[in-house]
Amino acid sequence: MGTDFDDSRFTAIGLFAEAFTGLSSRFAAQLEHHRVSPVEFEVLMRLARSPQNRLRMTDLAGQTSLSTSGVTRVVDRMDRGGLIRREACPSDRRSSFAVITEAGLARLEEILPGHLELVQRWFIDQLTPDQLAQMLESLRTIRDAVNPCATAGSSEEDIPAVPTR
């Protein structure tokens, strides 16, 4: 066997995975308290931070860890729960938008103080400001390489205008 199990590449990706898993488990308990799964929270945050609080379903799939069929199931479940709704795309009948509702925004307002406290304690406070800035730059570089669709639909130019009534 010629594999070098001490290869620093194993260490790099292993540390990244361990850090992500540790943070995710700390966040999951707080989200469960608010009756929201981690993926539902991610969908709510993506929509709340998007222009007009909406994304095309395909863009939402590209920005999350979900497939297009997975995002459809999550959106349908969240639609039934009143947290988001679907809207037809005015320029493409085959496409639809996921839009966060007032109830979805209210749920985020309940969740975010505790969530941000955990982010601060277990992520931000672990790094100096310079380390954090370098890490964010590095993560964007990696994200853009492995998931070029991660920011699809996140600017005003990407979204057709909502017709006025």
TrEMBL record:
It holds the Pfam family MarR. It comes from the Bacteria. Coiled coil: none annotated. Gene3D superfamilies: Winged helix-like DNA-binding domain superfamily/Winged helix DNA-binding domain. Residues 6-144 form the HTH marR-type domain. GO terms for molecular function: DNA-binding transcription factor activity. This is MarR family transcriptional regulator. It comes from Actinoplanes auranticolor. Signal peptide: none annotated. One of its GO terms (biological process) is response to stress. InterPro entries: HTH_MarR-typ, MarR/SlyA-like, WH-like_DNA-bd_sf, WH_DNA-bd_sf. SMART domains: HTH_MARR.
